Amino acid sequence: MNNSVRNTARLTWAALRALLVLTVVTGVIYPLAVWAVAQTAFHNQANGDQVTVNGKVVGSSLLGQNFNLPLRKGQTTPAPDPKWFQPRPSVAGSGGYDPTASGASNLGPTNPKLAQTIEQRRAQVAVFNGVSLSAVPVDAVTASGSGLDPDISPQYAQIQVDRVAKARHLPVAEVDKLVQEHTNGREFGILGEPTVNVLKLNIALQKLAG
Fold it and tell me: Structural domain boundaries of the chain?
């Protein structure tokens, strides 16, 4: 009986020590180490890569956002502002790009509703930018998995150049140059596709327009 009690006590103590060690390692040391590495090597990204203009935070280069006109009386959905480059469609939240409601529509590729939505978006984008239906790229009519994609393709940015230049009374060549300057190539030259960060492009556009 005494041996049984001693064995139980020994095993219990060993388990408690293991629990204590693992708690300290995984609950304290590891998180602190990750935090230190992030703050040292990836300071901007670890803090949300916030973008400031004149000392005011206007967004994050890691999260997309809407660039819409103010709601008019009787409107339930704001219209996109022609003076800004527009991001991809978003179904994150009722108005899109809600960081507290990240997600996709979860409609499958064979769902008729998805096909109908894409065709509606294609027509809207074509009319809004004054281009043909065939010129509208895929990312202009499809939402990302998170609904918060901050980037668009160079092709989508390109079809918006004329519209933005006209709305702001700027030379098309200057707006086109901004797009070229804000086009990021593939990671390491081989991974992913070229992208354009919408927020950074619009900030540069605002500076150009004065």
Answer: 2-43, 50-209
